[in-house]
Each structure stands twice: as C-alpha cells, then as structure tokens.
Amino acid sequence: MQQQPNNKNSQDLAGKTAVVTGGNVGLGFQSTLELAQRGARVVIACRSAEKGEAAMARVRQQVSSASLEVLPLDLTERDSIHRFAQSFTAKHQRLDILLSNAGVVNLKELERTKEGWEMHMATNHLGHFLLTGLLFETLVATPDARVVTVSSGAYKAAKMNFDDLHWEKRPYARVGSYAESKLANLLFMFALQRRFDAAGSSTKSMSAHPGLAATERQQSIGIGGWLSRMMARPVEFGARPQMMAATDTSLPACSFLGPRFGIWGNPSPIKLSGLAVDEGVQEKLWAVSEELTGFQYPQTEKAA
C-alpha cells in the first residue's frame, strides 16, 4: 500500500514570488500547483510559452485564484536566460523561491548545445548557474529567500572531469554524464551559500531529490522507464522533498532533502559525502562555470 501524500499547507506563501524552471510538467508542474495553492505568485519558466499557458490553465482548474504568469526560458541558450532575467527583474522586486527544477535525464545519444556544451551539464547545471547569477541581487535583497537546486542520488557515482566536462575525449556514457551534472548541482549549492553568506544575506541555498518518481521523462527512458512504471511513486510524492526545501523555515542552509529510504519514504535531510562536500572541487567548478557562461557573480569581500 502506497503512502498518501501530505497535503497540509504548512506555510502561507501569500505575497511571495516563486520561479519554477520546467514548471509546466512533471515535478515542476506539481510544485507550481502546490505553491499556487499556498498563495504564492508563481512564474512558470519553460521553453514553450504555449505549453506554459496550458499548464497555467490546468492549475487554475484547481486553484481559481492562482496568481500565475509564464516567461519563456531555454536553459541551453545564454541569450534566452538573459532575456528571462531581464523580463523578470523588470516586473518583480523580490524573489522568495527560485526552484531550479528543470532538467534532462539519461539522454540516449550525446547532444550538445550551440555553445558546444554537453546537454546534461548545460541544462542541469550551467543554465541554472547563469540564471541564479542574473537573479542573485534580487535574491539577496529578498529576506529569507530560497534557491532549491534539484539534484539526484546519482551524484555518488560521479567524478568531475574538468579536463573533459563536455565529453569530447571520453566515449559518451548517458548515466555518467547525468551523474556528473547532478554532482555539479550539489557542488553549486555549497558554493552559492558561501556567496550569500559573504553578502550578509539571509537567503539559503538548498537541494533536493525526488527519489524514483513517475514523471514523463523517467517513464520514457529504457530500464529507468520500466522501473518507474513498476516502482515509482506518483509525482505528488516526488515533489515533496523540493517543496520542503523551498518552504520549511526550520531547515538550515545547504540541506539536502530526499525520500528517507532513497526511493521511498517521507522527505528527510540526507547527509552528503565524497566530492560533493569538497570545498576545493566546489570552487573549481564555480570558476569553470563563470568562465563557460561568461558571467561573474557580484563580488563580495569573503567570496572575492
């Protein structure tokens, strides 16, 4: 018998603004719905404005008073990320929750962006790195804001191959490239918190993973799809760790939330280990990410 999701709205989010990348489908849509139910104004950030509008209509079928908008965002294109940030900051003076949810999983063939970046690293890490940087000053200026970077337990199987970050020398490995991007998410979480601390901000950098959730992407990828169809929890459960990371005010910075038993269980803090907690690796990835994206975060005394 499956557990029932906890639908208790533990925090009123009225007056708060959230951005959900990939907020039109899967875990992102579920998060958009729950944030709207709690009263937040939610910006659905996705590549297709048409699909974003359809998602917005679906939310309003359940939450007639939902405050929503759609802004186009393609995390694989630097120009698109800059346009999104410019549009957002022109409309909004605060950003309480940046839920970096969008991602690609175990792509069968090696794919690259027009920048030449491998698609997992581009979408899951570099795009969100640039987006967060462009919104950094708004986040810092918003009391008790949150940045939640969605990662995966797959990080444990990864190493950061800085001399071949985009799989130009190695034979492409779908699981390996995905795992590296998920390790990058956690390295980023820690390094980002140091920038918030150095800026004297109350903003917290967090991370979460859904376990095995029955998303459209997971159900469409080979063995992972078979496992999802047989074992995965509904999306309502998969979204719980990232929602907890985004809204539970009792959690310390750099908390990593996931199902208690890896795939199943209530969301709980998970102790990170290995390369994920290596400050030297965290800072090396940060420097490489600034170089690749062509964007340098605002300098603070401690982070400079």
Could you describe the 3D structure shown?
41% of the residues lie in helices and 12% in strands. With 304 residues, the chain is of the alpha/beta class. It has an eight-stranded mixed beta sheet, sandwiched between helices. Strand 1 (17-21), helix 1 (26-37) and strand 2 form a beta-alpha-beta unit. Helix 3 (78-91) runs parallel beside helix 4, helix 4 packs across helix 10 (279-293) and helix 6 (174-198) packs across helix 10. The longest helix is centred in the middle third of the chain and has 25 residues, at 174-198. It is globular and about 50 Å long. Residues 1-9 and 213-224 have low confidence and may be disordered.
Q: In a few lines, what is going on in this structure?
A:
The protein is built from 10 helices and 8 strands. With 304 residues, it is α/β, with parallel strands linked by helices.
- Low-confidence segments, given as residue ranges, are 1-9, 213-224
Order of helices and strands: EHEHEHEHHEHEHHHEEH
The average pLDDT score comes to 89
Give a short account of the largest sheet: 8 strands, mixed
Q: Gap between N and C termini, in Å? A: 52 Å
Number of helices: 10
- The radius of gyration computed from the alpha-carbon positions, rounded to a whole number of angstroms, is 18 Å
Number of strands: 8
* Helical proportion, percent range: 40-55%
Q: For the largest beta sheet, what order do the strands appear in spatially?
A: 3-2-1-4-5-6-7-8
Protein name: SDR family NAD(P)-dependent oxidoreductase
Pfam family, one: adh_short
Keywords: Oxidoreductase
